[in-house]
Structure formats: C-alpha cells, structure tokens
Amino acid sequence: MGKQHLAIIGIGEVPTGTYPDRSRWDIIYDASIQAVRDAGLHKNDIEAVVTVAPQAQPELYAEISFGKIPEELGLKGCRDVCTCNAGGASTSNCLRLAEQLIETGQAKAVLIPHVTVHSTIPLSDLINFFAKAGIDRQWEYPYGTTYNGVIAMMTRRYMYESGTTEEEMASVVVSLRKWATLDPNSIFYGKEAPTVEKVLSSSMVSSPLHKRECNVLADGGAALVVTSADTAKQMRCPAAVKLGESSRYFSAFTTTRSTEDVKAGFLNGTREALDQAGLTKEEIDIWNIYLAYPVGHPMFMETVGLCEPGQAGKMFMEGHTWPGGKLPWATIGDAIGRGHTGSGVSMATYVETARQLMGKAGERQVPGVSHIFQNTSGGSGMNFIATVWGRNN
Hints:
single chain; 14 helices; alpha/beta
C-alpha cells in the first residue's frame, strides 16, 4: 500500500434542510462538537482550525477568516487558524493544509468545519452570486450563460456521442435519490425516490435538463477532525486513512474547457491516485463521486473503464449503482440527493467516506468496505481532485 499520511478520526454533521431561524454559529457549534466527541478528544486537543470558506456569506466569511471559530468554541490548545476557498474543492484543500500542519509538527489534531445557510441570504443576492461565480464576465455573463444552460449542452453532447437515452439519464437521478432517501442528513430523507417517469415529467429547465435533474439549494454544515495515520493507529479508533491522491486543473470557465481534456483528467487523475494507493479499480468498494449534475456520473464511469463505452446509462437504469447493487455509487446521492450546500457538498462527501469506512452509515452501510475512491471539483468544474481512502484496521 501507499504512504498513509492523514486520517479522519471524527465526523459531525447537521441534517441538510432549510433553517432560516437557526444561526450559522449554531450549526458550526453542533457539527464541530460532534466531530471532536466522535474522535474521542477533548476540545483543547484541537491545535488548528482550517475552515471551508462559506460561499455567498461575506459577513460570516470575514468573521471566520479573522479567527472567530477557536474563540467561540473555546479551543484553548489552538495554535493556528486559516480559511480555504477553492469552491467545491475547498474541503480537499483544507485536508491538504491540515496534512501539512500535522506532518510539520505544528498540530496533532486539526478541526475542519463548514457551514452554509442559503435561506438567510436575500434571494436577489443568491441569484447574483450564482449568476457570476465561475462565469466569465466578458464572454459568458453578458449572454445569459448559466450553469444549468452549460450543463444542458454538455448533457446533449454526451447523449449524442454515447447513445444514452433521456430515460437512462433520468435513472442517474433515481439512483442518487435512492441513496438519499436512506440518509438522515439528506434533505430528501424518508421521501420516496422518484421514478424515471417522474423525473422526466418535471418541468424543463434547459433542454434536456428537467427540474429534478438540477440542484436544490439548502442549508447545512459538517466537520471533520483529522490527525496522522500513526496517531489514529495508536488511538485504536475507527478511521479513514488517505492512501493516494492526484489532481488536474482544467480551466476557470466552462466555455474554454473541452470534453476531451475533462475525460483525460478523470482518467489520469484516477489512475495516479489508485497507483499511489497501490490499488486497482477492481479493489474499490464504493465510488463516492461528486459532480453536481447527472451527466458527470456516466461520463466518469465510462472514462475510467468501469463499464463499456455507452453502457453507463444502463448501469444506473438496471440498479447496479443503487443500495444493494454491485457498484455502490455516491452513497449520499451527490448534490442532487443531498441538497446543494455550496462548498459543503464536498465536505458531506468526505464525511460519508469516513462514515462508511468507520462502519457508521446505518441503512446505507455497504458491507465489507475496505477502500473508497472519492473526488471533488471546484468552481464551474475547474479541476478534478481524486483521493483513495482505506480503513485503519
């Protein structure tokens, strides 16, 4: 196996939903305290805080950036604090920063929290933020370019090239929502997963994308506590250990990004992360893929060789990616099943990866999990960060 540098030993999370009456700080407290207790530590054992930047929340961003979290939580042992912003890849980079602090001896245990409360942001501000974030102000924004519009064009091209049908694309949503309905932290927990027919009967947003194939903005928060793999082993606590990592940068804006470059990034980044971990793709028990919209899932599956070209849609349609299927896939349901909490979708995915490896996933627990592949990407899909995780025992 590859080198074992970092271990997630504590996780905390509040359910995704709509909480206009609940303060952002309440969510930070709850998620952070859960994570510290889950790690079996005292709050004063936390020696650094690296926070996921809260998107579209400038006042909170300023408070956190100037070090309010250790003060509010009373972390008497904290030696340093910082905030990281890389869009949906923020959590990956928080983990990298934490790893550096741990490897250089600056901290033994690091807290990584995130919070988003979209419901308290004025609707006009929220629309403005997502209309401009990751959108080129000169060549995209003036012409009404939106994420839904761009993804719709990508979806149409993928369907044409692969022969994937609308029903098969809708089945990606069905698969993601089947996982979400079992997740107490999902906005869709306990609700019946939609059928393919129900997905396709929802209103058209940007052809061929229907309403149920797009994200739902939500409030939420989560936290991780990390330490070195050696320390986790000494503590004899369940942990998720990072075994391999790789990344690729594509471009800042969707109109300057080719599908061929994205596929090459998927393939090479995945291969390098697996090689570093000393594993093959056949040894991965769960593929925790975070790509926000349905089209990325079958495209990734085919690109890395998990099925034959043009067959990914059938994999989702036939239930192979569902709970109980032979290829467990995005076990929190990605942003479509989870509710989109800004950069917090990547945080929730890391929490889920750790939860599965710790054996704490409840109804969603995949039996016999030893290795999980996970990715994140930031902004408008500017990059691809691949990580491979394993159990510490």
